[in-house]
Amino acid sequence: MEMIKYVPNKMKNSVYTKETALFSKEQVEKVYRFHKSMGDKYNKTPLARLDALAASLGLGGLYVKDESQRGNLKAFKLLGGAYAVANSICRKLGVSIDDVDFNYLKSDEVKRKLGDLTFAAASDGNHGKSVAWAAHEFNQKSIVYMPKGTVRDRIEAIERFGGTVVVSDDNYDWCVREVNRLAAEKGWEVVLDTASEGDPQVATWVMQGYATMGVEAIEQLGDVVPTHMFLQAGVGSMAAAMAGVFINHYGDKCPKIYIMEPHQAACYYDSGVANDGSARSVDGDMDSIMAGLACGVPNPISWEIIRNFADGFFSCSDILTANGMRILSNPLAGDPRVVAGESGAVGTGLIDEIIKRRPDIAEKIGLDKTSRVILFSTEGDTDTQNYRDIVWYGKYSRF
Fold first, then answer.
1. What does the DSSP 8-state code read for residue 254?
2. What is the reported pLDDT for 1?
3. Whole-angstrom Cα distance, residue 281 to residue 105?
């Protein structure tokens, strides 16, 4: 099996559009301010500095944002779900989120004004959990449609916050369409992390919510300016949000941006191969252990940013992310341990593979002793059994 497929982005033009402007410094500061109003429900996650691993790989620096420690959800998605549900409530109240805080939206006064609402989502796990968490915090209900094969851990995580879970017989993209169809009948408030279906404003709020993760990372980097960032993509919302934050902050000094996907759902990679400016979609079971990335239809908002600014696209074997999980769980002396789930560790596994086995790619993308690389480990062990099978027992090994 081919471990890596790579294509440079020949469509890159660095054109700043209205989509890129969604992550202006002014806008992301507003988002950050809202999250900080959450009090002890908000915490800044660590940026792991893996100096020993960087040295062993011949890099100038390697930094991993550890989202396994994001609240009690073990995933960055908390940020997007909270911000999008809060904005949806504000829209119904006729107020701006800039003028209220988390506690006000949780108040009995707001509940009396709104009555009972149901927030609906389609999710492979983490997004649905974040919507259920936010709905619970705001004294409302939630329902989440999940693709076939969803593991029990991820279902129970949603149910713990009072969410109703429906596991379909189809893939994630079908769940997106079904939620929109049913919401029109039942009056649900739809909170999707993609604008391929439904209300693009809500998808925008979700993406802007993710921006806080990027702002935190930039603060933690301090004077260090990364040269490369590797961003995993499902629908591409997280990847585009991080790209947008870094583009707006660093300007001409923005690191090179590379997009990573599983082979089974490589819609951005296929779009790069097509090289005609339009986004490609894939369909089918998309049976990857990177469940959070098993999405076949790019978010149109994300595509505008990624097409214009990404330097290249990688399609990756599941073995790479399994290797990344093992590497991060068993650090070299002096490096912190990072508990990274299947959709969080692909960047670590990819870089290890490139440097050790694909020097041709390393040369093409400029990975060398001067490189300072930032990765986002977007989830922890959200599937505990699979995490142990991979890290303890070597599941998904190349040997």
1. P
2. 76
3. 38
pLDDT tens per residue across span 167-178? 999 888 899 999
Given CATH 2.20.28.90, say whether it is the number of domain 4-75+203-391. Answer: no
Q: What are the boundaries of each domain within the chain? A: 4-75+203-391, 77-199
pLDDT at 23: 98
Q: What is the dihedral of CA 378, 298, 118, 157, to 10 degrees?
A: -30
Residues of the chain with pLDDT under 50: none
CA-to-CA dists, residue 83 to 35, 138, 194, 245, 326, angstroms: 8, 12, 15, 16, 33
Q: What digits encode the pLDDT tens for the residues 348-370?
A: 999 999 999 999 999 999 999 99
Give CATH for domain 77-199: 3.40.50.1100
pLDDT attached to residue 286: 85
Told to judge if 77 belongs to the known catalytic residues of this protein, a careful annotator would answer: yes
Predicted local confidence at residue 338, as pLDDT:
98
Number of CB atoms found within 10 A of residue 98's CB: 10
pTM here is 0.96
Is 276 an active-site residue?
no
Check 65, 66, 74, 77 and give the catalytic one.
Answer: 77
Name the active-site residue from 66, 124, 173, 352: 124
| CB neighbour class for 178 (10 Å; exposed up to 12, middle 13-18, buried from 19) | middle
Residue type (1 letter), 71: G
